[in-house]
Amino acid sequence: MSEARTRKGRNRRDGKSVTVAAPYVRRRIPTYNLLDEEALQIIEDNADTVLQETGVEFMEDMEVLDIFREAGADVKGTRVRFERGMLRKIIQASAPGQFTLHARNPAKSVIIGGGNTVFAPIYGAPFVHDLENGRRYATIEDFRNLVKLIYQLPYLHMSGGTVCEPTDIPVPKRHLDMVYSHIRFSDKAFMGSVTEGSRAEDSVQMAKILFGDSFVEEKCCLVNIINVNSPLTYDSTMLAALKVYARHGQGTIITPFILSGAMGPVSTAGTLTQMLAEALPGIALTQLIRPGAPVILGNFTSSMSMRSGAPTFGMPEPALALLAAGQLARRLGVPWRGGGSLTASKLPDAQALQESSDTLFPAMMGGVNLMMQSAGWLEGGLSVGLEKLILDADHLGMMARMSEGMDLSENGQAMDAIREVGPGKHCLGCAHTQANFKTAFYDPVTNDSNSFEQWQQDGSLDAAQRANRIWKRMLEEYQAPDLDPGIDEVLCAFMARRRQELPDSLV
C-alpha cells in the first residue's frame, strides 16, 4: 500500500469528505522514459560543449569566481568555462540523491528524491484573484489567508515560500512577515527568502529559532529557489542567497527559467541542452561550498507565442522537455523539480484546466520529485487564484491516487465479489463493496456528479463557484496549529529588531 493511503481519516470540505493524505506521495507507477541512451548522451555532450566553449557568466561575485578557479575552472573576467565532465564529477561525489525536508510538525516532514513526489503551491505572484474582487495587488492578509488554506489542503505537502508578494510591506522587510506567517499559521515545511543575501540569512536565523541552531546546521529545514538568469547567467542576488543556504546545509533548487524562443532555442533538444548547461554549475557550486548540501535540479521550461511574444503553457513541446528533464536529473543523481499547474489563463476556466493538466501530467509521468507551482497559478504566474488553488489541490489528490498504481492484493483482485454476485446481478450490496466503498474511489471535492435536477437545486454552480464556497468556509473554520509561546516571543523580538535595522525602500 502506498504512502498516500497509509493514514485514513476524513476532513470535511463543503459538506463532503476527503481522504487524509500522507505528507508526500510515493509513486507505485512506472516512470516514463522518453529518450533512449543515445539521445540522452547527445544532450549531455552538447551541454559539456556549451560549458567548455561558451561558458557561464557569474555577475559581480568574486568569491564565486575564486571558488571555481580553485576547483580548476577557466575563469576570465566573470566568464567561467569548465572542462568536459568536471561539474558532473563534483556533483556525483557528494550531492545527495534524496533528503528529508523537516517540518516543525515531524509528521509533515517530506522526503525529496527517489520515488517520491512532493506538491508545493504557487510561488511569487504579485496579484491575487477571486470571483468577487477580481485581480488586485496582494497584501500580507492575502498571504496569511493563503498559508491558512494551504495548511488545510491535504495534498499540498509544503506551505511554500512567496505564495504571493505582500505589496503593502516594504520590500526589505516583507520576507520577515512571510517566513513568520509560514511558521505561525502552518506546521508544514516552508521556504526562505532569496531576494537578497541578508534576507536569506534572516530566514535561516528564524528557522534556527524554531528548530534550534544545531538542528538547522545538521538537518535541512528550508529549500529555496535559485533561478538562473537565462541564458547562461547567474546574477549576484541569486548567488548571494545560494551561498547562504549552501553554507548552512539548507536546500537549493537550481532552476534555469527558459521560455523557448526567447531565453533559449526554439527546439526542445536545444532548450534541454541549455537547461543542463545552466544548472550544472549552480549545483556543483553548492557542493564546492559544502559537500553534501541538499540540492535539486530545477526545470522551468515553457514556450512562447511566436506571434505575440507572450509566454504559453500546457503546450506539447514543454511536455516533452519535462519528460526528458526527469531522465537527465536521474542520470545526474539528484532530485528533480518540474511541472506545476501552469496556465496563461486569467480565470479558472477551461483553458486553465487544459493547460494545467497538460503540464501536470507529464511531470507526474516523468517522475517529478518536487512540483512547485502545483496549485493556484493563473496568468502565467502573475496571479494566484483562490478558486484555482482549491481546484488544483483537488486535482493533485487525483494524481496522488493515480500514483498508487493498481492494487493486486487479494482484496484488490475482488474474486470473492465476482463469485458472490455471479451473472446478471449487481455488486452494490455484495460484501466486498460494503467493505471497500468508502475508500475504493477518489472522492473529488470540487466536482459535481449529481443529476441535473439535484445540481439545479444546489444552486446551478460551476466548478469555480463551488471552489469559492469551499475556500471561504475553510477560512471560517481555520484553527492555527499550536506554537510554543516562548518560540513565538523570540521570533517576534527578532523581527522587531530587524525591522528597525532595515530601510523602508521599494527594492
TrEMBL record:
Keywords in alphabetical order: Methyltransferase, Transferase
UniProt key word Transferase: yes
GO biological process, one term: methylation
Class of the enzyme per the UniProt entry, highest EC level: transferase
GO molecular function: methyltransferase activity
Superkingdom of the source species: Bacteria
UniProt keyword rRNA processing, yes or no: no
EC number(s) stated in the UniProt entry for this protein: 2.1.1.-
Family: Belongs to the trimethylamine methyltransferase family.
Name of the molecule in the record: Methyltransferase
Source organism (scientific name): Aestuariispira insulae
Lineage summary: Bacteria, Pseudomonadati, Pseudomonadota, Alphaproteobacteria, Rhodospirillales
